[in-house]
Amino acid sequence: MNSGRDTVSIETKGVRKTYGERAAVDQVTLQVQKGEFVSLLGPSGCGKTTLLRMLGGLEQPDEGVILLGGRDVTGVPAYGRNSNMIFQQLALFPHMDVFHNIAYGLKVKKTPKAEIKRQVYEMLELVQLGDYSNRAISQLSGGQAQRVAIARALVNRPEVLLLDEPLSALDMQLRLDMQHELKRIQREFGGTFIFVTHDQSEAMNMSDRIGVMRSGKLLQYGTPDEIYENPADHFVAKFIGDTNLINVTVLGSDREVVRVDCFGHTLIVKENRGGSAQPTGTPSVLSLRYEYIRLGAEAEGSVNSFEGTVIESVYGGASIRYTLEITSELRIQATVLHQRGASRYAPGDIVRIGFDPDDALLLSEPEPESNQENRP
């Protein structure tokens, strides 16, 4: 992707926002390219909505710079920026029909009537509501109301559309449908969308890049596959997808692989990605995703292979999740695809477990003892 300055849509440099003694956003530097769909992802209270509000001019940073299209807009209020925002509460006007809701911003700008009509119907076609212009807001489904809100926000052609968890109130199936719709709309409109969510699957499904936040800090910013395959630390590894975080001790390294001790088992894993080599005796954390673990006959021939006892089997339709006890101090979880009619392991079964060095990631930051994920 071209990273030239002319391709940057919105950018922050060292942005910080405090409330009392607490830093809601702490020295965040972020660059979003034109036409990207970027998600700000993290748990409640991590600062993602505060950052979004600063991007939109609804909050002013205490430190740092915000650039929109190369222009410094740090102190510019929302009405002076070419951006729009959609909130959890859509705030559609109940006394206006669909057409007039979408047209509202154009009327405020005193756009000629013929141009208003043209632009509104263009937006209605974009959100696939061409026959709904005269509908009352009360007659719309949740998904239709979402699309009206998107059309109203886009009709003024903003440089950036900011979305603060707009899908969170929808039921699961409608939410999945709207994820596909929102990405289609963004792709066809060609604009820059920045989307706040606490749902990692939502971010993975829609985003070109994801910024993972925690305690006001931007921990990692990259493509979905970069963040999934090479998380910056144990928090990102656990927050994105399902992974076992296992405390290990480094025994030594040789030719890009590391030997680690895992509760009496010697395992071979890849050298720490994105960090320096760890000396012998260093406590570390092994991230081993559920779906990378092989069981039974499939585990034969794996570089790392040992036995475990099935503690629990949870049927999930397309897959089965097993909880396996390796030692009295270590339990892991594994997810395997389920084929109709295939036999399943039962609690008490002894199972061969295997994975290869490329399947695991050695993280340099040890998991705090209070958060040990893999003890019974």
TrEMBL record:
One Pfam family this sequence matches: TOBE_2
Domain ABC transporter span(s) in chain numbering: 10-240
Catalytic activity: ATP + H2O + polyamine-[polyamine-binding protein]Side 1 = ADP + phosphate + polyamineSide 2 + [polyamine-binding protein]Side 1
Keyword Acyltransferase among UniProt keywords: no
Assigned GO CC terms: ATP-binding cassette (ABC) transporter complex
Keywords of the record: ATP-binding, Cell membrane, Membrane, Nucleotide-binding, Translocase, Transport
Protein purpose: Part of the ABC transporter complex PotABCD involved in spermidine/putrescine import. Responsible for energy coupling to the transport system.
Protein name: Spermidine/putrescine import ATP-binding protein PotA
